[in-house]
Design a protein that fits this description.
globular; 5-stranded antiparallel beta sheet; alpha+beta
């Protein structure tokens, strides 16, 4: 599960065998977890984060949207051809 970004206590990553789903990013910090679709950016599921924290995470994803989508596309393009 490649970690693609760390911001403070947040770790942004995806699972390496999820290319059958639309682009998305997992976020965790301790026991808290969230999954956001990347296009459009939308919360898919979460556990432990409150609404304010989820809004802050969404803003971070928006700020890094191009980078996160680029990492997703680069990773799965590379592993699809392997």
């Amino acid at each position: 599960m490649p970690t693609v970004l760390r911001i403070g206590r947040l770790r942004f990553y995806f699972w390496s065998r999820e290319n059958d789903e639309p682009p998305h990013i997992h976020v965790e910090s301790g026991d808290e977890y969230a999954k956001f679709w990347l296009s459009p950016i939308e919360l898919a599921e979460s556990s432990g984060y409150n609404k304010k924290e989820l809004n802050q995470i969404r803003k971070l994803i928006l700020k890094n949207e191009d980078y996160l989508l680029g990492r997703w596309n680069d990773y799965f393009k590379k592993h699809k051809s392997s």
